[in-house]
């Protein structure tokens, strides 16, 4: 992968074409702003959104035709909303190479509410287990924007008429439909996490009357609304608010950042894996994007994302990556116990500092960590939790289930927990019920009260097939993982005695 130009090099002709582009200043600039470049069956395919750039390459096509076994096809998807919406800016990303953005988008990126994400870690205190996990929601948000744009541009190239037919019905997109829709997808992806409080999900319960999505809606509508409408187009902020509020008419657009194969999880799986130093989250995200297509939902008639035949294995890899990252990283026992301390601390701290949504935006991880250090040296109601974090003095695991604990195992562990409290009155115990959804797909023959989502494979003849019915793997992966653990604040012989007694109690309860 050429990180400078974003080229996927599959053969010598593309390498030669890249060399030509580098040797010509005009063409170098053009190649740096193309959306897609592919080489298939002797043909170099270059896709632009700007018709002027496409025309320039067409005028210089003789340069490329000098390359052996190479023909050139240039496609223009249409101009940007304005010159200031062209991706002339760029930022380097360890996952995606250069991420490009416009002068207009930079106004949003440089705004204090978005810059605040630089100081909110993607994985809270996971760095206490995986020291490299120091990455932030800032770079993740830009990564989601990059992937969502790739997906939208690919679908625009393949199904522009169908997308226009669907999106034209949205009042704010009735004119300049595709250009405005593309910009909305980019802004939605960029801002999808902008409302996260300090330490993200650990502080979710402290947000007045809601969750981080409510804060995101507040930011888009009240803080950034005027700037977004003035910079991009009238009604853009209202449309983004409806997307955040999960309006039914906008389901298709929302799927780019919130669905079973959205670009949010595509980015964070790869990014978290990279920074944690593990390979569990690695899968072929490029192949997943190239496999995307659109269909009409059999029930609602609205457009929805689907997978072309041949791409289903990449989606299976995404689900496996999600399963492995949850069991090995997100639900790691030490991360879970520090999440517990952090949540308890934030309940007390947030009662004082998160009384309004605007107050939530004043704080980030850095500020809260400073407060934790101060409280660790003080004597107040938060001090005990703060000292646990600062001194890394955590409870020890006593007993745990496997990854698939059902309600019966949860009840059994609860009984063991209560019995241990009775038998060891001087020891502090904590029962942790670690649960996370892996997927919400329909599984044939399964009676599951959980909400399910249907994902279809599009056969070469256009017929639809449920992926869960076609895949031998999806049905074998649990829709939800749950690990129940008992922790004790004990060391040495006392800890070993507690563990021995816990195993005996579990055997009796079985």
Structure description:
This protein is α+β, with helices and mostly antiparallel strands. The protein has 3 domains: about 10-75; about 85-330, Hypothetical protein af1432, CATH 1.10.3210.10; about 395-440 and about 475-510, GMP Synthetase, Chain A, domain 3, CATH 3.30.300. Helix content is about 50%, strand content about 15%. It is built from 22 helices and 12 strands. The protein has helices spanning about 10-25, 25-30, 50-60, 60-65, 105-110, 110-115, 135-165, 175-190, 210-225, 225-230, 235-245, 250-255, 265-275, 285-290, 310-330, 335-355, 355-360, 365-375, 385-390, 405-425, 465-470, 490-510, and strands spanning about 35-40, 45-50, 70-75, 90-95, 95-100, 290-295, 305-310, 395-400, 430-435, 455-460, 465, 480-490. Strands 6-7-10-11 form a 4-stranded mixed β-sheet. It has a 3-stranded mixed β-sheet with strand order 1-2-3, with helices on both faces. β4 and β5 form a beta hairpin. The longest helix has about 30 residues, at about 135-165. The radius of gyration is 26 Å and the shape is globular. The termini are far apart. Mean pLDDT is about 85; it is low at about 1-30.
In short:
Helices cover 48% and strands 13% of the residues.
CATH homologous superfamily caption of the largest domain: Hypothetical protein af1432
> Structural class of the helix and strand makeup?
alpha+beta
Sheet of most strands: 4 strands, mixed
The coarse overall form would be: globular
Beta-strand content bin: 5-15%
CATH architecture of the largest domain: Orthogonal Bundle
CATH class of the largest domain: Mainly Alpha
Query: How many structural domains in the coordinates?
Result: 3
Radius of gyration computed on alpha carbons:
26 Å
- The share of residues in helices is 40-55%
């Amino acid at each position: 992968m050429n990180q400078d130009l974003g080229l996927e090099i599959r053969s010598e002709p593309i390498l030669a074409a890249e060399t030509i582009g580098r040797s010509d200043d005009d063409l170098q600039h053009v190649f740096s702003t193309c959306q897609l470049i592919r080489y298939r069956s002797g043909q170099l395919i270059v896709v632009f959104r700007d018709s002027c750039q496409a025309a320039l390459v067409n005028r210089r096509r003789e340069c490329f035709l000098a390359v052996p076994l190479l023909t050139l096809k240039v496609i223009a998807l249409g101009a940007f909303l304005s010159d200031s919406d062209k991706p002339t800016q760029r930022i380097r990303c360890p996952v995606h190479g250069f991420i490009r953005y416009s002068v207009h988008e930079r106004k949003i990126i440089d705004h204090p509410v978005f810059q605040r994400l630089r100081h909110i870690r993607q994985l809270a205190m996971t760095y206490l287990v995986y020291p490299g996990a120091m990455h932030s929601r800032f770079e993740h948000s830009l990564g989601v924007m990059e992937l969502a744009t790739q997906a939208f541009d690919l679908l625009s190239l393949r199904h522009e008429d169908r997308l226009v037919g669907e999106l034209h019905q949205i009042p704010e997109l009735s004119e300049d439909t595709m250009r405005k829709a593309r910009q909305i997808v980019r802004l939605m992806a960029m801002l999808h996490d902008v409302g996260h409080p300090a330490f993200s999900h650990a502080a979710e319960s402290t947000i007045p009357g809601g969750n981080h999505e409510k804060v995101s809606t507040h930011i888009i509508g009240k803080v950034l609304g005027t700037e977004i409408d003035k910079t991009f187009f009238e009604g853009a902020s209202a449309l983004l608010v409806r997307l955040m509020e999960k309006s039914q008419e906008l389901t298709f657009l929302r799927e780019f950042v919130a669905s079973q194969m959205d670009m949010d999880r595509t980015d964070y799986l790869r990014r978290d894996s990279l920074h944690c130093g593990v390979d569990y989250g690695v899968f072929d995200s490029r192949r997943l994007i190239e496999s995307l297509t659109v269909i009409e939902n059999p029930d609602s008639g609205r457009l929805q994302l689907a997978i072309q035949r041949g791409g289903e294995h990449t989606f299976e890899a995404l689900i496996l990556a999600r399963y492995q990252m949850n069991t090995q990283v997100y639900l790691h026992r030490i991360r879970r116990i520090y999440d517990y301390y952090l949540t308890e601390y934030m309940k007390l701290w947030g009662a004082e500092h998160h009384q309004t949504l605007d107050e939530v935006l004043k704080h980030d991880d850095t500020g809260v960590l400073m407060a934790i250090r101060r409280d660790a040296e003080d004597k107040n109601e938060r001090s005990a939790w703060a000292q646990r974090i600062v001194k890394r003095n955590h409870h020890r695991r006593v007993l745990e289930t496997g990854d698939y604990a059902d309600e019966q195992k949860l009840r059994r562990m609860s009984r063991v927990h209560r019995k241990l409290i009775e038998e060891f009155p001087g020891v502090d115990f904590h029962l942790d019920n670690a649960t996370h959804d892996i997927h919400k797909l329909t599984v044939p023959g399964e009676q599951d009260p959980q909400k399910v989502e249907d994902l279809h494979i599009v056969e070469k003849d256009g017929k639809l097939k449920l992926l869960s019915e076609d895949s031998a793997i999806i049905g074998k992966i649990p829709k939800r993982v749950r690990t129940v653990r008992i922790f004790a604040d004990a060391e040495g012989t006392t800890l070993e005695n507690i563990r021995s007694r816990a195993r005996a109690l579990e055997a009796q309860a079985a």
